[in-house]
Design a protein that fits this description.
By secondary structure, the chain is α/β, with parallel strands linked by helices. It folds into 2 domains: about 45 residues, no CATH class; about 230 residues, Rossmann fold (3-Layer(aba) Sandwich). The protein has 7 helices and 14 strands.
Length: about 300
Amino acid sequence: MRRRVHFAGALCAGLLWVRADCAAGVVFEITSPYHHIRVVDEGNLRTLSFDGSAETRMSLQNPLQGHFEYTEYFHMPWLWNRQLTNVLMIGLGGASTQRAYRHYYPDVVVETVELDAAVLRVAKEYFGFQESSTQRVQVADGRVFVRRGGGPYGAIIVDAYTKNRYGSFIPYHLATKEFFELTNQRLTTNGVLAYNVIGTFQGWRADILGSVYKTMKEVFPQVYFFPAQETLNVVVVGVKSSEKLSQTALQQRANVLLQSQRIKLPTFRSRLMLLRTDPPLNFQQCHVLTDDYAPVDGLLTRGR
């Protein structure tokens, strides 16, 4: 389960871990039980690829730069929980968000659940990720980990994808009402869920975005959207508070966070300006996803 961006097989018994110096730009290559993984350098940028899809991007000169824009929306939970002390993240990839949290909020404990042990090794060796007292990793399935307990967390960030012949899609068991109920139980009273969806508000993959919204609204009183500009990623934010906040009210909160220097992310204010509070136009026709009915991959063929 991985993070993925989108621009406008059989399991093996063990890991195949080889240098790939023969391929131009490929500096490392691995076949794990879950993906064919490549680390590719092009100029100053290093990209992590799973099965041909770009998962993480990082500047080789400055690891805090070069990342995909949508990961900056994982800082938005501060707007609803200004006393964040711990975060659970499902999906490690190349650790863009983990690196950012380590730099900007060194006192916040980030616990990451990653399904693939090979991804953890790649993140450490090629993307500068370091485990520490505030950066912990558990190799496990995200939903199983959440079900077993832990927390409460000030925020839970979900950035996990798998792939079939139609493209990347959210794993079924991480997109249902039952899963969102589990995350809600593991959040603090002012906790926030931030969830990466590849889709659009109209047309391409609009049914996926509408279904995720409708399902999250079954559990979270208020749901907000932060659509990326560079990619077709939308970070959907669910909050436990029933109060619907306007962009003006959230901008005022952002000003306080920035003035107090609790938030130092340079683009924090500009990212907030892309907030959308209106639901997708098609959500009334979309289904609530449940453990008994979650055709997430089937929705990939709609609106193409």
